[in-house]
Amino acid sequence: MPETAAAEAGRSEPGRVLVFTVDGHEYGLGLESIVEIVRHRGATPVPCSDPAIAGIVPLRGRMVTLFDLRRGLDRPPRPAGGRAQVIVIDSSGDLLGLVVDSVTRVAAVPEGPIEPLPPGLRPGPPGALGGALQKKDGYVFLLDLEAIVKRIS
After folding, report:
1. N or C: which end of the chain has fewer CB within 10 A?
2. Which residues are bridge partners to 30 per DSSP?
3. What is the C-alpha to C-alpha distance for residues 23 and 142, in angstroms, rounded to an integer?
4. Which domains does the chain have, with CATH numbers?
5. Which residues neighbour 3 within 8 Å (Cβ) at sequence distance 6 or greater?
6. Above 50 in pLDDT, residue 11?
């Protein structure tokens, strides 16, 4: 799937993404699959899981698998005492929590195709990002949610 198509598939509410930070970079995720945002309060480890799996937590009677985007995007560990948030998403009926540094806003996405990632600028492993939105002082990198879910399935 081309990078633009992956980013287009990640949009639910046309033209709007949730913007959050991970290690000083801004990332975005389409609003369609987001259930809620909660404070990260630790997790129960899952033996023999992907290193990016931070563990599992109960949320309103259901179990949520936490995926630490710092680890998943090959970023340095979160500083001790840093407060993190969890973006809870519905992935085919299962709940997945994306652990991020902070959620900042909901942003409008201009009409038309999403820009591919600029050459040489890859704030994450290949396949994790589906494109970029240019802003005055940089980019908002769009996550390829499907690729992330496949990684931990």
Report:
1. C
2. 17
3. 15
4. 3-152 (2.40.50.180)
5. 114, 116, 117, 129, 130, 131
6. no
